[in-house]
Protein: IPT/TIG domain-containing protein
Amino acid sequence: MLSNKCVTNPEDTCKGETLVNGKNRIGHATRRGPDYCPRFTADQGDIFVSSGRNRKVGVRGHNLLQDTMSYFKCQFRISHMIHEKTAVLRGDRIECDDMKFEYFDQGEGNGTAIADFSITWYKSGEKIGHLLDNTDNLRVIIYKCEMLASNCGLCLALNYSMFECGWCNEMSQCTYRDACTLGWMNRKSGKALCPFPKIGDFSPKKGPVNGGTKVTITGVNLGLSYADVKDAVMVANSRCDVSEHEYVLASKIVCHTRKPLTGTGQPVNVVIKLKDNLNYTAISDQSFTFVNPSVTSFSPHRGPISGGTDITIIGHNLDSGSQFAVKIGNIPCDVKERTEKKVVCRTKAADSGSSKTEPVILSADGTQLKVDSVHFQYMPDPIVNRVSKPVSIMSGGIALDVHGAGFNLLQRAYLVTLHEDQVLYGPKCNVVGESLMVCRTPPISMSPSRRSDVSIERPLRVDYGFDFDGALTGNLSQIRGFEQLSVFPDPKILKFPTIQTASPGSDLVLKGENLNVAASSRDVNVTVGNVPCNVTALANVTLTCQLSPEMPLDEELEVVVLIGQKSENVGMVSDRIGMDPSNYLFVAFAIAFLGIFLAIMLFVLYRRKNTSHNRQMRYLKNQMNSIEMKVAQECKEAFHELQTNMNAIAGSLPQGASFIPFLTYKDYTARILFPHSFSNHPVLHELTVDEDRAAAVESGLRQFHRLLFNKTFILAFVRTIDENKYFLLKDRVYVGSLLMVILQERMDYATEILKQLLKELIKRNLDCKYQPKILFRRAESVAERMLSIWFSFLMYPFLTRGSGQQLYQLFWATKQQTEKGPQDSITMDSRYSLSEEKLLRSTFEFKELTVFVASDTNSAVCDTQVRVLDCDSITQVKEKCIDAKYRTMPYSSRPHASDVDLELRIGTTRMVLADLDNTSKQENGVYRYNTLAHYKVENKATLAIIPRQSSSSYNISLLSDKTDKSSFSFIHNNSPTLTRQPFGTTGSKHSNEPCSSTLKVYHLVKPVAEHGMNHDNQEKMVTEIYLTRLLTMKGTLQKFVEDLLEVIFSTSNRVTALPACIKYMFDFLDEQALEHGIMDPDVVHTWKSNALPLRFWVNLIKNPDFIFDIQKPTKIEGSLNVVAQTLMDACSTQDHQLTKDSPSSKLLFANEIEKYKSWVHRYYRDIRSMPPIPEKEMNAHLIEESRAHSREFMIFSALNELYVYVNQNKEMIFEELNQNEFALQQQLPEKFQSMLQTMEVPPDNLILNNGSLDNYNSKSRLMSNSNSRFY
Structure:
């Protein structure tokens, strides 16, 4: 024990020490087993400590050698930190010194963190300790009350012996006792009961009139004991008997309805009254209906005695009740599907005997419905009399004619084979009539060695039978003496040696071996370029089919042969016919004759030319040679770029490119919500109002807030906005944004409202017979705008933890590759671009320079190396220098190019460089921007970024001093013009500034003159030769584009899981399509694409500054638009026929678009196959999102903005509310009128009522300001 080690011969190795023998070892020591080892245990298991509290941890020691074990130390490992405390031994107890337990990360993600606990003992004078055994795996559980529970009920339901938490009414939060100054309670403080219960959901929504329906209610603050809820649940003024063993504290009640006292068939609310007080009463938003199911029709009316027939029952209210059963007479029918209008059940086997007719009986929660007019007849089972020519091939798929009786009773018939104890099923049989069906054989799986034993002379003999709706016929080879199934080797198709020539409508002959041994013409399918080729003849070694007359011309088409389930690609076919050899001679003769004739004519013309013409010819020849040389040079450069390694961009990324400057959630959502005013929108600032009006405005806005959280009112309000044909589209978008800002504090409620609005939008679209695929394509309704923002809110974690990295890498790579070549700083046309419209269609001589940037204004030390081009304008150079020098800082923290000057340092000489100064060159009144070449800046020159001597608003500490800011303003017409002060940098002592007002300027591309001609006197070439640069750019960026598309359309991301919001909303769209009978999969595919990729991802690709703290990507917007267009094409379900006249943005990725489309289809398919997200789990996720971002925007300001639209449409809203039955029951017109009057009532007559905005202090939100909106 003292040596603290495990040895083989302890008596010899550890002489004189206390020994503990192994359990089964024979030795002198009487101590055996781990129970005798030095260890410690706790009296009551794990130790629970609230975060931020001090605690002395004490445990009980066992088998301690007090004379030898001199002192002890306790170690607590919290996250990655180890805390060590001295411990003392008192008797058999070890007590650790007082320690403060707390954690700051996510912990276990459930409001707790685990501190691993260990105790080390030391011998006197030794520094190396030994661990005591922690046999009970004792831990310290650190918890935070506010994270353990989000509401009062869950808080008080916590085990108080472990968690010393209670609910603080003042803070509306689960907290510790001493953290709450007023209104703290827990389960030990008398009869604690949480106010404001809420019914989140209940099911089912219907039940039979006689009661007995088991209703499951979920919600918040639903009591803290069975006694609280025993008599508290009412449905239609009748008590609902609560089940004690199924009750879950505060969150779930299960009860059984009684027969209602009032009328039936009308929707009623579920009411939970914990006390005779409105604050302890919950009324469901949804309604429950007492109604019996009814049947209108069903099919089929007959089925085999063995069962397995799927009966479809059509009626009304078939979803009434929680327990639903169907019987055919006394025989159960298993329910497979159940909706409001349809039930599908599968019959069980009836007693053997003759056919009999039985009634269909429905049972809902004990209430039986027997429809005398609805009967089902059990018929004798189908029988098989013979199988014509039972043959197959190893790959299966051969059609067999099965003759018998009763086949028209079957729904699911399969041919089944038995081979080597393997039961193999073929495809579903096709029932032709009562006595005939066609079944296809299954494939036979065998090892290659066994497969080689099968030949034409020795086929494999296999037993077979049939599966008739789940009932097996047995082995017909043995029971009925049928001939066994003969399985032959797969036929062989010989490949074409070369491309075959054929014309549309002609016969195509294919050769092979053993083609018709088992197969017939109906088993063979030939396609040429995906177009069927009609099989006309099938022999042992040849197969003939007739080509379609519509076969495409001048194309090489792939020929695929499918025999059974064996597919073979045999080669290519084309209708191109080679030229006859005799034609070559004729063409050669014609060319020779024409050449001789032209030579004679040229000679005659040449002789007649005078001297002036000769000079003109020489001049034109020189011009042509010059153009040809330039074209050749450009083509050579393009070829070199295309052959260069396209991954060279990875090596050219500057150091620090891995830094990703994500915007905060608030800044990100502000840009999404209000893209044109995200920096100064009213919802980002506190609402200001005149002091005399503050009380009225606050009370009115609180009433408005409560109305918006009434489902009936908000739906009526949105319907009014959408139905107002005079309401502008931009105003609908704005209203949708404001609603999502207000509802953000209750994302679960926002989701419920959004789903209802989308249901109405889909129904309205289908009722009006609009094209369903246009839904969600544009934000033409409030619901579509809310859907877009809903995704944006919930996708933020996915962006910051996963896909944001690929999006930033694409932006960074595009920016870097664009800057590798010349770019016009005015038109933004560049040498390297994905956009044809933004391609620089001229050739410019340029050199790449490496310059060094001084570390600060007055330093001679250069700490940054920057690659620039000698054709860059001075502003472009400044931007590149700032990017390199401040590469690890977000854009908002950097100095801007307009705030600094660029200084060239040569020895002790310093010169400020500017885009325009008194040295700028001008031609015909147009000035050219200065470049590095203009200033003759050499390679490895030294530059410095110095402050400007004018007003500046950014943190100039980055430049070591505060300076002023100046900027140029540009006016772009046909000729770019510059409106500014005189030449040079304002306040620069290095430039003489001639006076000028409005100047026409250009950088690389000269502007077009008024008479339409270009100022450039150089020769112009055909601009299409520059299109190869698009391929260079594509090759460089393709990996980044595909990385982004792959992470967008993948459900198995390595970093983060698929966002729950995508699965939840896609399942909702699938349900809506099914509910409305939309069977076209392209429609749902388009809905999903319009809702997420085209509305969310395309927006971020075009505007990466919405998620990253970067400069607005004006320089590369053309390339980003092409990437966005590629994503849109990948989501499209249409096959676009591309030609040479198609836009280059579609042609550029034409070869890859089919691959991208397959990614999208796989993505949607994988999401659909994932298990659905339970409503309770999704609501918990949404509530957590709301809690995490509940203080991002000013709710009063948002209500104030939204009130303007309410006031403008108040008459229409009144009319909508007065026509709504539920609105009238809840007195919503009166409440709406009261709110409008409150906004105008003088403050002396106003009484403020508490509402759901109690956490907003009116003093801090409504400040005195005479320039108020409410005046």
In short: The chain has a mean pLDDT of 82. The longest strand covers residues 367-379. The chain has 29 helices and 60 strands.
